[in-house]
Amino acid sequence: MTTTTAVIGTIAVLLSLVCWALFLRGVGTMVRSIAQGQKVEPSRFAYPGKRFATMMKEFVAHTRMVKFRTVGWAHWLVMFGFLIGFVFWFEAYGQIFDPEFHWPVIGAWNIYIFADEVLGLATVIGIVVLMVIRQLNHPRVPARLSRFSGSRFGAAYFVEAVVLIEGLGMIFVKTFKISSGIENPPVWTSFFTHYFAQLFEGSSVYWVTAAAVVKLMSGMVWLAVVGLNIDWGVAWHRFAAFFNIYFKRESDGGVALGAAKPMMSQGKVLDMETADPDVDAFGAGKIEDFSWKGWLDFTTCTECGRCQSQCPAWNTGKPLSPKLMIMSLRDHGQAKAPYLFAGGRKDMGGDEVGIVDADGNVDEARLNKVPAAARAEAERKLVGESEGTTGAVIDAEALWSCTTCGACVEQCPVDIEHVDHFIDMRRYQVLIESDFPSELAGMFKNLENKGNPWGQNASQRTAWIDEMDIHIPVYGQDVDSFEGYEYLFWVGCAGAYEDRAKKTTKAVAELLDIAAVDFMVLGQGETCTGDSARRAGNEFLFQMLAQQNIDTFDEVFATAPEQRKKIVVTCAHCFNAIGNEYPQVGGKYEVVHHTQLLNRLVREKRLVPVAAPAGEQVTYHDPCYLGRHNKVYDAPRELMESSGSTLTEMPRHGERSMCCGAGGARMWMEEQIGKRINVDRVDEALSTLNSRPTDADGNKQVRKIATGCPFCRVMLTDGVTAQTSGTEDEGQVEVVDVSQLILEGVKRGRPEVKRGGNFLGPIQTERAPEPEPEPVAAAAKPAAPAATAAPAEAKPAVGLAPKSGGLKKPGGLKKPGGAPKPGGATAPAEPAAETTQAAPAKGLAMGGGLKKPGGLKKPGGAPKPGAAKPAAAASAAPATDDAATESAATESATSGAAAPVETTATEGKAKGFGMAGGLKKPGAKKPGAAKPAAAAPAEPTAPAATESAATEPADEAPADATAADTGTAAPAAAATTSGTEGKAKGFGMAAGLKKPGAKKPGAPKAAATAAEPSAPAETAPAPEPAAPEEPAAPAAGETAAQTDEPAEAPAPAAGSSDSRTITETGASKAKGFGLAAGKKRPGK
C-alpha cells in the first residue's frame, strides 16, 4: 500500500459510507410504506418450507423468467453476476488500498479465480443482451406494440449502465493483475483475461487500484441513487422479489389465479351478514385499503411490461395496462406515505379523522407539518376520472376494461397479483360508491330476481331436456336421492338458456348416456354460480348465490361420502367458481370439466370416436378460466386428436392464449373503445385456418374453431359473423364445442345408437313388431294406437324422435319409480310432409336465440302440490294454405308435438343465506319429487299427423321463425296447475325482491278436456272426436299476465349476436347493487 492508494482508498470508503446511509434510509422508508397496508390472511405465513422451496426454485431455475426465452437466460446471467458478484465487489475495498489484496484462503483457490472470470463475463454478456432487447422493443414506433411503453427509461438506463460497469470492473481488475505480474493463474481459470491481459502487458499496479475504485464506486452510486428513489422498481426488485415470491398467495407455488381472493379487512374474510362498512374495508377505495402484500406487489414491479404485452385490453386499444396500473398505485402510495406516516386518515365522506386533537377536530399544526405534496396526494380519489394533476389515480374506464383473463398474472416474473387488486377496487366501486357501468345494473337485477344473467324463468331451465330423445333424470322430479349416480351434471345458465350453449349441453348429455355414465341434473334447482357478480365486484350478491347453491348441493349429496360428491360442468366459469371459490364459503366438491371427463371416457374405450373421411381443420381457443386459471390444456386437445380433427394451433395458445373478451363480467358490458377483443381473436383464428385451406390431397377442408366454454363460444361466433359477413368465408367457418367434435366421431362409429342405457332401464325385449310402412293411399284409414304403447300413455313425440328400441322422455315431470314412457309413433318410410299439419309451438322457440313464448306453457315458478293435471290429446290447428302448412311443418320438426304435462310437487324447505331479517335466498326453488298421476288417454290421430310428429326434427328452431308461425300452429294441449299459493321468495332486499327463477303461478287455469284433431288429407278423412271442447291456449301476453309480477320485456334471441343483451329498465345511472338498469347491448 502506498500513500496514493491509501488516500484514494480512504476517500472511497468515506463516500461509500454516505451511499450506504442513503440506501439504508431508503430501505427503512420502503418498509414503513409497505407496513401502511392492512394485515394479510394467516395462510401467507403457513407452510414456510414449501414457500422457501418455491422461492429458491423460481430464483435458481428462473422458472418465471424463462417464459421469454432469450430474456430468461440473459437475466439469469445478470442476476447471478449481481448476487454472487457481491463477494468480488466487496473485495474492491481491499484492492483500492493494496492492489495485491484478495480474500484470505479462498482468494488463492483456482476455483475462486475461475468464478471471478465467469461471473464478470456473464454479467457483461447478459446486460448487453438485455440492453439490445430493450432497444429493439423501444416504444418509438408504434407505441402500442411495445411492452416498454410507459416504463421509466431513465431508471432502466441507469441500472443497465451500472451493471455493465460492474461487470467490466471485475474483468479489468483481473486483467491488470495478470498484466502487471501480480497474479499468474492457470490459463483455464482465466480463459479470457489471460489473453486480454496481453494487450496491457507490463502495466502499472496502480491500474489495479483504478479499476477497483471504478468497480466499487459504480456500486456505491447505485446504492445512493436507488436509496433516494424508492419507486424505482427496476432496481428494487433485486431485493423485494424474494419476499414477494415467498409471500405469494399460493403456498404450493401456483400463481394467484383460479379463485379470486375473498374480500378481506385486516386479514379476516368478511361475512356480508356482519360486516360494517364504517369499520371494515369493502374492497379498496384508498391506497391504505390494500394489504401490505399489495404494497409489496407495487414496490416489486420491474416495469418489464410482460403483463402489458399479453393484456387483451391493451392490445386492442383500451386504456388498461396492468403494468401502468401497478406503477400508478406504487407512485401514489409512495407520494401519500408521509401523510400516512403522520397518522392521516379520511373517512368515506372525505373528512379528516386521523390527524385530530382530543376533541376530534382537525389538528392544523400537525397537519401542516405534512409536506404539501403528500396532503395533495391524499385528496385524490383512487378510481374515477383521471385527467389533470388532481384526477383519480386509476381511470375508471381502465379498471372496467379488465377481463380478469389472468394473462398478466401468468406472465409476471415476480408474482404480482394484478387480478386480485383490480377486483378489490371494483368491489369498493360497486358496494360503497355504487359507481359502475350501467350495463351491469341489469345483470345484477336479473341475478337477484331470476337467478340467471339473462333474466329467464327458472321453468325454462329444463327446456333442453324436452328436445332430447334420452331420459335425463332431474333431481326432485324423477329422483329424490343421489344414490346410484356418479355425477351431478351442472348445466349452468348458458347451457340451459343460450341456444349455442345448449348444443354443448345436449352433446355432453348424449355422450354420457352412450358411455353409460350415471348422471342427473338439478333442473330448476340451479341458480347462477355468481362468477360474473364476483368479477364485477358485487361480493354481496356472489355470497348469496353461492350459499344457495351450496345448500342445494348439500341436500343432493346428503348421503354421499366426500369422494362421491362429483360434479361435471360445461362452463369454464362455473367450473372455476364451484371448484375453486365455493370452498371459501363452505362448499367442497370434486368438480370436473366435461372435456376432462370425456377424455377419460375415451381413454377407457367407453367412447370410441371414428375419424371423418374428409379433412376437418380445427383450431382451438383456450378459455381463460379453463386454461390459465385451472391449467387444463391437454384434455381438450387429446379429445380433438381422438376425433380425427387436424389441429392447427394459433400463435397465441396455451398459457399465452388470447382472451375472447367475455371474462370479468365483460360479457354483459359494451365495448366502446378500440377494437373488439373477440374480433381480434377471431382474426387470429381465421388467419390460422386459412393458412391450410386444403388437405394433402388438395380437398377443401371443413374449418372449425373449437373451444370449451359457452361464453367463449358466444363471443367467437359473434366475431366470426362480423368478420366473414359478405365475404367468401361467410358460413364456411363454424364455432363448436369440443364435445360436439367427439360426438360426431362417436356417431360415425355407432350409426345406430341403442337407447335404454343406465337411465332408461333395460331395453324392452318383448316389443310388438313395428308395422310395415303402408302406401300413402292406405293412410286414409284412421290410425290405431301404436302397438308398443299403452293407450293411457300414448303421447306425441317431443323433440327428437327416438330410434328403434329407444324410449322417449316426455316434456313435463315424470313419475318417480314408474315404468319408462314409450316414444312417439314410428315414422313410416314414405314421407307425407305435404299432408302434415302444424304442430303446436312448444316452449320458447325464437330462432337462434331465447325461445319465444307460446305453445305448451310451463308454470312460472316451482310446481305446487295438488291434484294431477287433466291431460289433453295433442293435435294441431289446421293450416289455411300451403304456405302456412309448410311453415307449421317446419316448426313441428323443431319442437315436436306437445305432450300432456303432469305437474305435482311439494314445497321444499326454504334455503337461505342466513341474512339478518330473514332474507331469502335468490334463485329457483327446486321442485319436490313428482307424485304419480294417471295420464288421460290420448285421442287417436290421423296417420298423416302421426307421421308428422314422428318425423326426424331439425337440431334447433329455424332463425326466421316468427310470431305469426306460432299463431298458426297453436298449442294443442294446455297445462293446468293445481295447488296452493306458495310463499313469495326474495333476495332479502328492499321491496321484497323475488327469488330468481321461481314465480308464483296465477289462478288455476281451466283444464283442456279435448283438442281439435289434426286436419286429415283430403283423400283420407279421419273420424272426428265427439264434441270436443275448445282448448284454452292463452297468448304469450295472457300467460305473462297470470303471474304475480309484472311481465318484463322479452329478452333478445340468445343465439344471435345480441345474446348478451339485457332488457333495459329503470334509470340510466347504476345505483346500489345494480337494481336500477340502463343496459346496452355489448359487442357492437
From TrEMBL:
InterPro entries: 4Fe4S_Fe-S-bd, 4Fe4S_Fe_S_CS, Cys_rich_dom, HdrC_iron-sulfur_subunit, Helical_ferredxn
One Pfam family hit: CCG
Keywords, sorted A to Z: 4Fe-4S, Iron, Iron-sulfur, Membrane, Metal-binding, Oxidoreductase, Transmembrane, Transmembrane helix
Stretches for region Disordered: 751-1084
Biased composition (Polar residues): 1056-1065
Biased composition (Low complexity): 775-807, 816-844, 859-900, 925-952, 959-981, 990-1021, 1029-1054, 1066-1077
GO CC terms, sorted: plasma membrane
Residue stretches making up the 4Fe-4S ferredoxin-type domain: 292-322, 390-422
UniProt key word Transferase: no
Transmembrane segments annotated in the record for this chain: 6-24, 73-90, 110-133, 154-173
GO molecular function, one term: oxidoreductase activity
Protein name (record): Putative iron-sulfur binding reductase
Organism: Gordonia sihwensis NBRC 108236
